[in-house]
Amino acid sequence: MKVVIAIDSFKGCCTTMEAADAVERGLIYYREDIKTVKVPIADGGEGTVDTLVKSLDGKYVNVEVLNPLGRKVKSKYGILPGNIAVIEMAAASGLPLISKSEYNPLITTTYGTGELIRDALDKGCRTIYIGLGGSATNDGGVGMAQSLGVSFKDKNNQEIGFGGAELKNITTIDTSRIDARINNTEMVLLSDVTNPLCGENGASAVYGPQKGATSKTIAILDSNLRYFGGLIKEQLSIDILERPGSGAAGGLGAGLFAFCNAKSYSGIEKIMDLIGLEDHLKDADLVFTGEGRIDFQTINGKVPIGVARKAKKFGVPVIAIVGSIGEGAEIVYNYGIDAIVDIVSEPISLDKALEAGISLIERATERTMRIWDTSGKSQISKKVQKKEII
């Protein structure tokens, strides 16, 4: 029996490979003769760099950049064969880089993301993949653009400061000194966010609360982004206000569209194609996927659905191992998931669940296989087969 393990990270608990290792151990606890293929996977958010570097034999580049609050922080990105850079904006401008008490999208910046892009340009990369998940920012990508040489002046001809609160002060956008290498670089955005820049489905309203924004703050941020989008249309003749994906990462999508001529792709679809997931599914008997929390939003380009869609092309059953089951999760059954297994089998606090997450994944996998085999669906070979890691 061949089992493919393509599971997302469990935020605050384990990486995609740690989760895959745990599933594999659960399978071994049940039977040692199951062949496993572990495929690192991500959807453009956390783990994207690790997934592509490990799957495609890339390398890491360490660099010091500014974090969302303008403090120096050690960061990294990847370079893949062909001198293709892969960047997670969260590695420079993400929530994990600041404490929860410091969350404030009025003052956080994407400047560090621009520094990662600039370093990749310095390394000769002319194709750059950028994952847009996990941002702490709501500055429309202004910080990123400033890092690359774009100037945003106020009425006193002074450069504006960092953060979403500053956008209302912009009177002039000057792109004359933008890094010229941008013109010869393909910017590929990995994101499944299709939100516009502003409005009830925009960057501020939908994602602002998780970054510390109150209802009052959201109104300010949304108004500032609308003003900023209007300026871009007026001064650069580029309309990004309603463009799908402009609202990704607090409007960083809009900034990359406007200043870097970026193109947006489904993160999970692009990554699955890059790592050749289908090649491992063709002769699989079962697939394990999953994520920290599965709910109605999972169908919007998350790892489990992407994996399930590929698996269904070959008629392979798909089981999702998850940290918790949220509202509307049953909708995923219409998208290729055959079963959902919650790793928590008794009342437990969130902190304890996170601490014990890996062992809980192991146990849940073993239980699942016992049920699966009892149902008669599993045809497990008696021959011990080699385990494979890709």
UniProtKB/TrEMBL annotation:
<keyword id="KW-0808">Transferase</keyword>
<dbReference type="Pfam" id="PF02595">
    <property type="entry name" value="Gly_kinase"/>
</dbReference>
<comment type="similarity">
    <text>Belongs to the glycerate kinase type-1 family.</text>
</comment>
<dbReference type="InterPro" id="IPR018197">
    <property type="entry name" value="Glycerate_kinase_RE-like"/>
</dbReference>
<keyword id="KW-0418">Kinase</keyword>
<protein>
    <submittedName>
        <fullName>Glycerate kinase</fullName>
    </submittedName>
</protein>
<dbReference type="GO" id="GO:0008887">
    <property type="term" value="F:glycerate kinase activity"/>
</dbReference>
<dbReference type="InterPro" id="IPR018193">
    <property type="entry name" value="Glyc_kinase_flavodox-like_fold"/>
</dbReference>
<dbReference type="GO" id="GO:0031388">
    <property type="term" value="P:organic acid phosphorylation"/>
</dbReference>
<dbReference type="InterPro" id="IPR036129">
    <property type="entry name" value="Glycerate_kinase_sf"/>
</dbReference>
<dbReference type="InterPro" id="IPR004381">
    <property type="entry name" value="Glycerate_kinase"/>
</dbReference>
